[in-house]
UniProtKB/TrEMBL annotation:
Presence of keyword Transmembrane helix: yes
Protein name (record): Protein-export membrane protein SecF
Subunit composition and interactions: Part of the protein translocation apparatus. Forms a complex with SecD.
Domain (Protein export membrane protein SecD/SecF C-terminal): residue spans on this chain: 91-274
Alphabetical list of Pfam families matching this protein: Sec_GG (PF07549), SecD_SecF_C (PF02355)
Natural source organism: Methanocaldococcus fervens (strain DSM 4213 / JCM 15782 / AG86)
Functional note: Involved in protein export.
Transmembrane segments: 7-25, 121-140, 147-167, 173-195, 216-238, 250-274
Annotated GO CC locations: plasma membrane
Localization per record: Cell membrane
Length: 282
């Protein structure tokens, strides 16, 4: 919490603008859940070098190797129209004439279905955000107090998306679900702060915010710790469950953004509202 509300507001707003620029210019990678395509998974018993396979499929497919308790998995993702080329390169790499000689599975998602997933995911986030905004406004019936909560929640979402762009985390059905959870976490801490500030006017602004911070940061850091443990466990012991790792990572980014937006942006605007704007009205 900063004494100068201008600096307190400027820091998260600068990060918000940076996130918007990242999303606009760099974009966010999308999984086959969103774009459509084919995912081929091959289980192997040893940690083999797949560099030559990556080189042969450069700019055609995305390839990664995941470790699990029962061995290693080579995952190849490509556009549906490139499947035949990809399969041929895989057969050459493993020196087989048919893929069914390998411990192999294939998943294909059509463009129509994937676009439907994306459309429904965006609708879910939009409706959740709209209903959250309506509930917040009716709870406070104060345009400034409710507006800053809505702004903070929106900033959390955009900053999380900006971090996904920066660290190349794919937008998928799983990460869309994580973004839905972000709205709930954001509203929780911001309502805590705003309620304390507006209803405990007998105490000084700084004292009220400090009390709210003790509770709010305890909740936030508890959740961040849980997500960090999940991320470490997945990375070290079950890398094949990379969906869980992506969800945990997105939530960690969003919760860090929420700390900035709640205790700098929201607190800064409330400081101005309580100590200057409303004081002039009295």
């Amino acid at each position: 919490m900063l004494k100068d509300y201008r600096l307190s507001i400027a820091i998260p707003l600068a990060l918000l603008i940076l996130s918007i620029l990242l999303i606009g210019f760099k974009g966010i990678p999308k999984s086959i859940d969103i774009t459509g395509g084919t995912e081929i998974t091959i289980k192997v018993n040893n940690d083999m070098d797949i560099t030559s396979l990556k080189n042969s499929l450069n700019n055609i497919a995305e390839i990664k190797k995941l470790k699990a308790a029962d061995g290693y998995y080579i995952v190849v993702r490509c556009k549906t129209e490139d499947v035949d080329i990809v399969k041929q390169k895989i057969k050459e790499f493993f020196n087989v004439d048919r893929l069914d000689k390998l411990n192999y599975s294939e998943k294909t998602i059509g463009a129509t279905l994937s676009s439907k997933f994306f459309e429904e995911g965006l609708k879910a986030i939009s409706f959740a955000f709209i209903f959250m905004a309506i509930a917040v406004y009716f709870a406070f019936r104060n345009p400034i107090a409710s507006g800053v909560i809505i702004l903070s929640a929106l900033s959390d979402l955009i900053m999380a998306l900006g971090a996904m762009s920066l660290f190349n985390i794919e937008l998928s059905s799983a990460t869309i679900a994580a973004l839905l959870m972000v709205i709930g976490y954001s509203v929780d801490s911001n309502i805590l702060l705003t309620t304390r500030v507006l209803k405990r006017l007998s105490k000084s602004f700084d004292e009220t915010v400090k009390e709210a911070m003790k509770t709010g940061l305890t909740m936030t850091f508890t959740t961040i710790s849980a997500m960090l443990i999940l991320l470490i466990v997945v990375k070290l012991f079950i890398p094949v469950a990379d969906i869980l790792a992506n969800i945990a990572t997105v939530l960690i980014f969003a919760l860090v953004a929420d700390i900035l937006n709640t205790w700098l942006l929201n607190a800064g605007i409330l400081r101005y509202y309580i100590t200057e704007y409303r004081a002039k009205k009295i």
